[in-house]
Amino acid sequence: MWLVRALIRSQGQIFFQRATLSGLVVLLALTVASPCLAGAAVLGAAVQTGVSLLLRRPSSVSAQSDAADGIHGFCGALTGCAALLACGPSTAALTWTVLGSALCALFVRVLERIRIFTWLPMLTGPFCAVNSALNPVFGRWHQDVSAVPPFESIGPLPDLVSGTLRACAQVLLTDHLLTGLVVLALMFLAGAREGLWSLTGAVAATALGFWILGGEPAAAGLAGYCGFLTALALGALFPPADAARAVRLIVPLAGACLTVPLWGALQYTGMAMYTWPFVLTTWAVLIAQHRWARREVTRAAS
Asked: What is the separation, in whole angstroms, between the first and last Cα of the chain?
């Protein structure tokens, strides 16, 4: 029962949600796109959780508690999704999922030794680093057609609405419109603040993506999903402490918009994008906030 709860909560932690219900909704969103995708996410979460516990003291209460909350499984869940969507249901995808999820556990353990991560959240950084390295290794097994069947329309939708839903779905690395709807419902289920910030970030980044990329919903959705995550993180989870109301509103929105040109710039590197724009933008803002807060404390003490 403990393991089942851990694997379910790992899915919700992709969206910073600890509740078991949130994890179940994420699994629903993945299953809507493809049952294989949900299976890959569960397998990846299981491998990362297991290896993470092996790398820590077996009797460590904190490690077991974090694992039960899905903290040590969500990078593995995303790894499973990345592998399946790149290679389709295959031995290569299975190997990538197991190897990548285990490496995520090891990488997280290494990062825990770095003092900066005592206050700076790792976010999906370990997932991005590990899978950006593994993606070219498994390049010969990449498939031209996604493992998730296309789902192009749920009726006539304005391009901005379609692009925004695709952005919500792309957090789970898929382009399925119904998945996007379920993800958006999840965020409002988590809370009004989480729902509004994630939607605002997705809309703002997608609209900017339309302007930059010329109005293609699928491409704009790709440009918008990191805005979803960045606004959620900076607006709902790590808002600027003791800042004016205007600053608390502007910072997450600006961060969401900054992910779009960063996404465009990273495209030219040829690396697998994953959630790098979200991770790098959020880290930069949080580091700036941390330094500002320390300077203010020093100034007040002098």
From this structure: 54
Q: Cβ of 154: how many Cβ atoms within 10 Å?
A: 12
Cβ proximity of 202 and 146 under 8 Å: no
Answer whether 204's CB lies under 8 Å from 231's CB. Answer: yes
DSSP 29-59: HHHHH-HHHHHHHHHHHHHHHHHHHHTS-TT
Rounded distance, CA 248 to CA 50, Å? 38
Task: Tell me the per-residue pLDDT of 85-119, one tens digit each, with 9 for 90 and over.
Answer: 999 999 999 999 999 999 999 999 999 888 778 88
Instruction: Say what the pLDDT of residue 61 is.
Output: 61
- Cα 263 to Cα 52, 68, 101, 164: the distances in Å are 31, 33, 24, 16
Per-residue pLDDT reduced to its tens digit, 234-258: 999 998 777 677 788 999 999 999 9
Q: With contact defined as beta carbons under 8 Å apart, do 176 and 211 qualify?
A: no
Cβ atoms within 10 A of the Cβ of 266, count? 17
pLDDT tens readout for residues 200-241: 999 999 999 888 776 666 676 788 999 999 999 999 999 877
Q: Which amino acid is present at 261?
A: P
Contacts of 217 (CB under 8 A, 6+ apart): 159, 162, 163, 166
Q: Which of 200, 261, 182, 151 is nearest to 14 (CA)?
A: 182
